[in-house]
């Protein structure tokens, strides 16, 4: 058993803290109502199975998780993905590359939207090697890869021994295939989460540093870097509590609440489908077990377009996305 | 008993109660010093971290460890910054050995 395997049972799930005003009250005080805009991104979580046990994972994904999206649900996803309001299909996990039907799934999705994204931890992609990378290239799939730190020891502490060097080699291979190159349409983006209980730096500045350092040291190129704070759910919440950082971190997020960020929040334009076909307002609500609009709805029951007044379900973890510049 | 109290940092503004104008001038100056200029905020935080170790101020070490992390520095970069401080502080002790040598030479046969 992995040491993190039963952590969630030990400490419970997200709860309100006396020191932090409930998120819904903060919205109310500011006179803000969080409603869906017209969702243009359909995010599909293929399951929680992953080869890594990252300490900052909000989903508690790992080798111990066996949940995987079935073929029937995947076919139900196609029906929704074909709706013209979606311009992006965002496939995530766990490690979606471990799903035996991933390439079939992507091939079916590809004609349905202008952009199809695969979120990769890079290490499974390394195992699958050239055959999988070639198919992703041929389908024109955008790859969004996790790369939390430019420091090997820090990255490995967060994601597992050897993950950093493996990720570097995989990025180089993707570059050789045309991903991330200026003259190529094959988009390669990176995601860098802070390596602990602190807020991320300016995304723009961090992107410049990553571009400079990855190019200098390993001749790696990529298109965009996204940086956002770790969400206090799942395994990251367990770590926060065990390390005595939970209260301070929640206060830090709440103190950084920026009312101007609410208008552009990611959850306003995204629909999140879980491995079992149930819908959530975002991936973080999926981790928190809060269904879309707090009503358990299966993808087969979804009626598009959503009503304009569709209220987004919230929890205190939402302070993560409203901190500073916000998660858009 | 430790004289250092972690919550002093959060209450630092109270230092202005007896001399508000001076405090305000200091805090304004301080804020301007750490704003983006020819040096980035990240670089300035790393310098502050190094100086914090040189002056051995626990408040500053606490504040600028957090600041460095939030400005995107990693622990390897921060450790190098502390080594820069160590080298300067150690070097400043060692270079005074030249005074010792001069005095000893004058007094010695």
Give a concise summary.
By secondary structure, chain A is of the alpha/beta class. Helix content of chain A is 35%, strand content 11%.
Walk me through this protein's architecture:
The complex is a heterodimer of chains A (328) and B (109). In chain A, 35% of the residues lie in helices and 11% in strands. Chain A is built from 12 helices and 8 strands. Chain A has an 8-stranded mixed sheet. In chain A, helix 4 links the parallel strand 2 and strand 3. In chain A, helix 5 runs parallel beside helix 7. The radius of gyration of chain A is 19 Å and the shape is globular. Chain A starts with 6 loop residues before the first helix and ends in a 6-residue tail after the last helix. The N terminus of chain A is likely disordered. In chain B, helix 2 packs antiparallel against helix 3 and helix 2 packs across helix 4. Chain B is extended. At the A-B interface, helix 8 of A face helix 3 and helix 4 of B.
Query: What's the overall geometry of chain A?
Result: globular
Give helix % range of chain B: 55-70%
Contiguous low-pLDDT stretches of chain A (5 residues minimum) are 1-14
User: Which oligomeric form is depicted?
Assistant: heterodimer
Q: How much of the polypeptide of chain B forms β-strand, as a percent range?
A: under 5%
Quickly count the domains of chain B: 2
Q: What is the fold named in CATH at topology level of chain A?
A: TIM Barrel
Average per-residue pLDDT of chain A, rounded, comes to 92
What percentage of residues of chain A falls in helices of 4 or more residues?
Answer: 25-40%
| Widest sheet, order of strands of chain A | 6-5-4-3-2-1-7-8
Any idea what the shape of chain B is? Answer: extended
For the terminal residues of chain A, how far apart are their CA atoms?
37 Å
- The SSE order of chain A reads HHEHEHEHEHHEHEHHEEHH
CATH architecture of the largest domain in chain B: Up-down Bundle
Largest sheet properties of chain A: 8 strands, mixed
